[in-house]
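Collaborator request, handled under Task 6.
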Amino acid sequence: MRPPFVTIILAGGKGTRMGSRDKHKVCFEVLGVPVIIRALETYNLCGSLVNVVVVGAMAESVMTTVNQRFPGTPYAFQEKPLGTGDAARKGAEILERVRFEGDVLVVAGDKVIDPRVIRRMLAAHQHSGADVTLATARRPSNSSAGILLQSARGNILGILEEAERRRVAALGRINQAFAVEDELGREAIQRLAAEVCGEKGGRALVAELFGPPTAPSAPVAGDGPPSAAGGAEDGALRRAAFEERFPAQERLGLIEVGGERVPAERLLQRFDRINLSTYLFRAPVLYDALSRLKSSRSNQEQYLTDVFAILAGRKRPARVLGWEVEDPRDLMAFNNPQELLAIEDVYRQRQGQPAVLETPAVPRELLAPAAKWRAMFENPSPAARRQLRHLYGEAVPWEKLRRALDAFTVRFGAERPVAIVRSPGRINLMGRHVDHQGGTVNVMAVNREIILVAAPRPDDAVCLVNMDGSQFSEETFRISDLVASLNWDDWQRVIDGPRLQRLLESARGDWANYVKAAILRLQELFRDRRLRGLDMLVSGDIPMGAGLSSSSALVVAAAEAARLFNRLPVSARRLVSLCGEGEWFVGTRGGAADHAAIRLSRRGCVTRVGFFPFAIEDSAHFFPEHDLVVCNSGIYAGKSRDARNTFNAKVTAYHIGRIWFKLLRPDLAPRIEYLRDISPERLGLGRAAFARLLSQLPARISRTRVQAAFGSIAAADRDRLERLFLSHEAPADGYAVRGAVLFGLSEMARARLCLDLLKQGDAAALGRMMDVSHDGDRVSRATARNTWRRVSRSSEEDRLASWASRARPGRGADLATFSGDYGCSLPEIDRIVDFARTQPGVEGAQMAGAGLGGCVMVLARRADTGSLLKALMEKGIAAEVFQPIAGACSLSLE
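Structure tokens returned to the collaborator:
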């Protein structure tokens, strides 16, 4: 007869990644049974005399759930979240009081364990005579679980957390850098730390190296930041200070294992077993180890895993052995709803149920066999003609639709039920670079688009096929695999996490990333279900990298198909916001203006869209006697590393300017949440005071000087800057803050005027606004000798002073006449703009899209469009007239 054992179940943590404020992690269900109930049933079935449940956060949720099935269960209360070691001690104190001397199973409450594991582990523990037996497994790639450090005889000497291994490895890298440098800047250290530790761990190590921010002095005017005590030295670390702060072993990147020092970077080559956080202790050994446990130096928490180093260091070392769980499905845990659903799949399979996803009913008019769609396009009914003319006008692309459908049929078959999603490119007529700062945009969808033919699948695989197979290879991925490989706390952590950065670096420029962006953003929002996959054929004629948002059109199309097939309750407006956030996945930090234009545009109209909160504010018909001519520079405006660095540095300059404005006037800070809030009207400032504050923003400032002022900056703003800094390399000449802010504020003023000018039919005034807007992005200008030179940015302080002195208060509309300095054009783009402006009938011209390549849009009188196209063609510039069409949608058979 086996000796009796008892169980301590640790259920005091918050479990925030489950996304629930009132339901504890262990109370979530697997096939209708709460995880904590499954655990208690398992331990009782294996012979546990008593189960002590340690509760803390959301204790009432846990106790209510347990008492419904197991009334009388004893509880230990962990008043403060001081770690697993403290929680285990709370449970052990109950056992000590009754003088229990048998075996104690200590296990986390989120474990779902097959009873065979407990029985076999108990048998192995008793047979070996070990003081402690741990459940272990072979280490999978990218695991964050604790690493078992073992002696040559297999005795476990300690458990090293992966985060600590990376920290020591990073210290070794920094020490190597100090071998050739006497001083390292904060930014260089941050980069080294993040490479090894990831974003979060890197930040923690930098804070450990540099210490807490020192008390700041008052803000100062001019280009310099509010200074912190210590000045420039606060942004660098000397070798001597580094050596004083850390013992030699840590500095060298070494970890001691049984008297031997092992390089942290090579440790995984030596030790390939991980801790599954399921332990069998002989009770006296557990009580003794917990009594010796000390708090972490950094956060006062006590970790249960630290007891193993204590046990190995006793005069008579405890015998601690590992017991390997061969099938990972026999001992599972979860941190987010997706992982819980994966556990449910395992249980469903073991009960003989197929582990397939539910197939929600899709309206029959949206989903039909490919052959039926083909018949409609060959011989459209009056209703079909009305539908498509409503979307396109008279120029319905029947042939493009047929070709896409035929390509799907060739690859996937004619009888598959499919939906057809169209997603156009877009033009932002006015409001460039400001949507993510709370500005408005004036957008219209244009007659270049992506056509997506898609069929739902019974699993969560996504198969992507592009009609242009020579440029875009076929790809397949599983949604669950992506979820398992990312940091799944919330979307911000997903996109900032080091695992995603490694994933993107290994597949930079992969077109599938845009589909993953859309689907993962929806999956993160709907964590309580597993999204089903789809087979999709993509066809399109939006030029890539032309500033017409071909990538955003693909994101919207994929999101619409995933929403349709999973019957997700997401409105069109909410989908726009989700698509904007989803595209952060590929590395840029823009807003949702492109997605709003693509999804919500009305045919023939320009629509003004506001942000924070998102709102369709108004719309107006485009000028009936004018055309919008789009010229393709032929320069690909892609998401290369250099382009991302530039784009994200500009966004960061906006945020630095907003924060600096708040530092200059702390009394106004509560009113400033976005850049758009910096206005004389909102802040109650006279023009002179407002202009003076703008003039005091830094013309250029280095990242190091910004970081030196972190002590003065509110925690939320500091955290935002740290995240943005990780998205790009610091500009060599610093952030052009004042020019960027002035561009952003003036562009917002122009964007507010745009629809009024359309309604008034004042094309000349709108053309002038287009010219001023482009000058804010301009990087070169023609000389009197017909050559080109880099544009020299003269200070606009004199203009600001003149503007401030005007007696007429107005509402800031004349701020629209400023250009500022955003600088995302290219010399080739500037030349097309300036050539177009010389042609008869041209009202104005400006860069389209985010810049660094792409297109130019020209507003021209329709009577002169033909001569303009001819002149552009003679210059070798490809150009065409774009017509405004309706936004993205699924086509209907009825």
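The cover message to the collaborator said: "The mean pLDDT is 86. DSSP finds 32 helices and 33 strands in the chain. Please let us know whether this matches your experimental observations."
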